[in-house]
Amino acid sequence: MLDKLQQLGAATIASVQGFGRAALMVLGALWGRPRFVKAWPLYIKQFYVVGVLSLLIIVVSGLFIGMVLALQGYTVLSKFGAEQMLGPLVALSLLRELGPVVTALLFAGRAGSALTAEIGLMKATEQLSGMEMMAVDPLRRVIAPRFWAGVVCMPLLALIFNAVGILGGHLVGVDWLGVDAGGYWSAMQANVDLHEDVLNGVIKSMVFAFLVTVIALHKGFDAVPTSEGISQATTQTVVTASLAVLGFDFVLTAVMFGG
Amino acid sequence: MGNTTAEPLVNIQNLTFRRGERVIYDDMSMQFRRGKVTAIMGPSGIGKTTLLRLIGGQLKPDSGHIWFDGVDIPALGRNDLYQARKKMSMLFQSGALFSDMSVFDNVAFPIREHTKLPEEIIRMMVLMKLEAVGLRGARDLMPGELSGGMARRAALARAIALDPQLIMYDEPFAGQDPISMGVIVRLIRSLNDALGLTSIVVSHDVNEVMSIADYVYVVAERRVIGHGTPQQLRVHESPLVQQFLQGLADGPVPFHFKAADYAGELMELKD
Asked: Do the chains contact at B58 and A132, CB–CB below 8 Å?
């Protein structure tokens, strides 16, 4: 019993220490005047690696999720003769929930794990130490561009995911199952609110972007610099980030749409 | 603190460093004179690399002073430490080249980070440094395309890119074939003399170190067990120093890891 209690205490202390180190890392990376002028090629490169290269998986997943939503929604809606509500169903599911959440999960798997592995390997091969010894702060040089790339790109990816998903819903609902095209769009227009739905979704994905990016960077920066340590850190990034996204999604949903 | 040549560039006084419960260095002192190649030798696992990280300010000692060019490294704040680091450089065992940049960009990296020189001048500086290590022709290769010895030479070119006062070599000879070993031995000596550097070489390759060092410290058991010029060390009276220099398997450092009585343990198996 005491042993268990002690383990619980140790685990709690370790995770609080982890939070502290992650916060220090982010502060260290963002502290001081940003050097956008000198460092812009670094930023461009990270936006490309983190954002542009994630486009394919986001677009394909968005398309299929929109198509599935339309297919499933149609079966139920058609029983009540409410097929014209398919547009709002697809749009609201995507904007409020699936867009931000699924994008964050995919992003954690695609870009997050890559960030962790890259930074972990840079640590293991002494590149970060080497940079420090050359009087270049790895937090500003390595972490900061990746942080901004993740935080800026993920909400944009979520918006693209939503747009493609709605088109996928159109593809199945209108082109295949024969819902009226005008009805699909006009019902969507009438039922989707810019503030309530679109903006809240964007806020969600901004929170998720911060979570996933910081977790990925922190796990890489804190990795034990061995091959085993890096593989563990990469796994932890995906697991922790996914759980954090789902947990925060519940909280945010309760706050935004609950009352 | 003056900049006279008599003043050592690096002066370690009463350094104590612990890692958790384990004491790595206990009240150790060392001096590294300007313009000289000073070597630190010792069995593996005694924290020779740790010492370089202490000098570089990446680790903080538990007590003691590390004077570098008139400043006490452990007492420096972040900005002053970064200023001091611009005057020193370190050659890591792995080379630590940035794997996403070509050899040229690797060498240009510290120059681009710390100066606002136009690109033509940077190009000239980089080519000069690469020429010094014999890799001018390899400037467009990526680090992954270099052999181990070439990677270390490229890293050396990067280390001298900003003409530091101090250069620290972490096991520069480890894992090198005889030819590239010879090249690196010669480079350490000739760069030190041509550029007026002060060099610290951490290594356990006795012959190579004895051939280039002006002064040698032998470190074991948390302290300096012997120091002097290579000639003085060869006739040093300490049996531990002699065991290390001659590479004897048994001596004060036993061949066997601490274990229970051999015969007794074998008998136990039978029961």
From this structure: yes
